[in-house]
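Database export, one record per block. Field names are fixed; values are copied verbatim from the stored entry.
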Amino acid sequence: MRVVAGKFKGRRLKTLKGSEVRPTADRVKESLFRILGEQVVDADFLDLCAGTGNIGLEALSQGAKSTTFIDSNYHCIRIIKSNLEMCGLDRKHPHVRVIHLDAQKALARLSKRKAKFDLIYFDPPYASKIHASCLRQIAEAGLLSPTGVLVIEHRRVRGADWTVSLILDELVLSRQERYGGTMLSFYRWQP
């Protein structure tokens, strides 16, 4: 796993051994950032269920103004901090925030602080059941800026697709991309 572009390009990142964490594949990451393009520059980025911090670090590398990393796993938090240090950053850097909480508690905390993000990347464990509740929290709290994009990484779906039927307030599915067994679903505020 490596940073694919920007000021940290080529840096190898640490990951956890075993199947506890499923890092986003480099080709999926490359495609994601190609789709987001210039939206990343000067963006406030939220890496929700960050795992190794792979996506949030890529955002910083490609010009994001700030990144907030959230994960509930202590080992993941240690890996995120280590990967930040490998890129010359640390958790005390003014544009980096590392939060060790589960996704729903962290979103509640961010809501109380009236936080806003231009880009939110949400990559919970594929088998988890927190997708809808976290999206509802993001929508109801207005954590996504009016022109922002929320991206969910999830298992490829067959048959009835929860991503299409999930409409919260005016946050709607605008695009989907498939990469083997992985899908990215892009949500935006409906104008």
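Remark 1: The domain at 26-158+166-189 is CATH 3.40.50.150 (Rossmann fold).
Remark 2: The beta strands are 44-48, 66-71, 96-100, 117-122, 144-155, 171-179, 182-189.
End of record.
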